[in-house]
Amino acid sequence: MATDSKSPTVDKSDVTARLPKPSNLGDVVTDRTKVLTDVERGQLEEQNKRMVTPFQAQKLEHEARKHWDLFYKRNDTRFFKDRHWTTREFSELLSENPAVPGTLADGTRRNDAENQQKTLLEVGCGVGNLIFPLIEDGHRDYFIYACDLSPRAVELVRKHNLYDERYMRAFPCDITTPEVFGTVTEHSLDIVTLIFVLSAIHPEKLPAVVANIFRLIKPGGMVLFRDYGRYDMAQLRFKAGHKIGENFYVRQDGTRSYYFAEDEVATLFRQAGFAVLLNSYIHRRTINAKENIDVPRIFVQGKFQKPPQPE
In this structure, what are the phi and psi dihedrals at residue 209, rounded to the nearest 5 degrees? Predict the structure, then answer.
């Protein structure tokens, strides 16, 4: 269900005076919510003039799987670009030695207790734009589980030339329900990735999702999170008739998107029992040279850990 679109882009830092100095990756990292201009406040007010009706909103919820299946029927594997950036942003995804699973950086073998294969679950795997770049880049330390609400997306993952059930398993799943426990056992995962997926879920169901993930993950395991941030350009551009609720919208194709505040993400994970290791807004200026477009993007990025068992 991932929703970061495919386009030729070049990222530059956001030089807005209100924000701190950009990081060396060209991003601006901050815990402050964007300050709206008068024009931007007017855009949000316009959205309220015609809201999605409660009947329409309920219908969208019931038909969420259908809309994502239709999305992948239209777009197949062409819509999203491969996420080779994830290992740059989340070093936890890196293998100790990409060439030899179970080997440390100096070439020595880990002991038997340490040599157990790590397990990773990508929630909202789409067509595999995170997991297959990991494999292509040599990070094969994991047994990978990959799930998506859309059975069509999962079928596209299974058809990929790198799909191999010796070290991965893709399956359809509604992560808002206990359905996932039919495939993945409790306390079995080292890492769970949530990359542009929670935004596609009704905000009222998010606590249940994070609670399920807490049950799945091992003590000391990690959740890696990235999603749309409050007042992102895409949120401001919605017209009247697309707003379902506060910061929650429907696109033309029937898929939905929520825009997160940094503090609500932290609260969501803390209430489920996670420790917040990192959580902040990422302000990025995205330039589409082909279309001569220069737009500011806002994401929330975080790392959340299930507390380790006391020794």
Answer: -60, -50
d(CA 92, CA 303): 10
CB 197 within 8 A of CB 224: no
Residues 6+ apart with CB under 8 A from 111: none
Kindly tell me if the per-residue pLDDT of 64 is higher than 80: yes
The SS3 of residue 61 is: helix
* Tally of helices (H runs) and strands (E runs) in the chain: 9, 12
**Cβ contact 178:211 at 8 Å:** no
Pairing outcome for strands 189-195 and 142-148: unpaired
Question: CA 38, 44, 47: angle at the middle one, nearest 5?
Answer: 145
102-160 pLDDT, tens digit each: 433 344 444 444 446 899 999 999 988 888 888 888 777 889 999 999 999 999 999 99
Best CA proximity match to 255, nearest among 149, 131, 154, 147: 149
Which has the closest alpha carbon to 150: 76, 77, 67, 79?
67
The residues facing 170 across adjacent strands are 146
Token digits of residue 86: 């994830």
pTM confidence score: 0.82
Cα 221 off chain centre by: 17
Q: For the residues of 256-305, what is the DSSP string, one character each?
A: EEE-B-HHHHHHHHHHHT-EEEEEEEEEEEEEETTTTEEEEEEEEEEEEE
Q: Any idea which residue has 């855009």 for tokens? A: 43
Q: How far apart (Å, rounded) are the C-alpha atoms in residues 279 and 257?
A: 20
Q: 3-state DSSP call for residue 216? A: helix
Within 13 Å and on the Cβ side, how many CA atoms surround 136? 15
Retrieve residue 198's tokens: 């929670």
d(CA 177, CA 196): 19
Instruction: Please tell me the total number of residues recorded for the chain in this structure.
Output: 311
Place of tokens 């294969």: 117
Helix (H) or strand (E) holding 266: helix 262-272
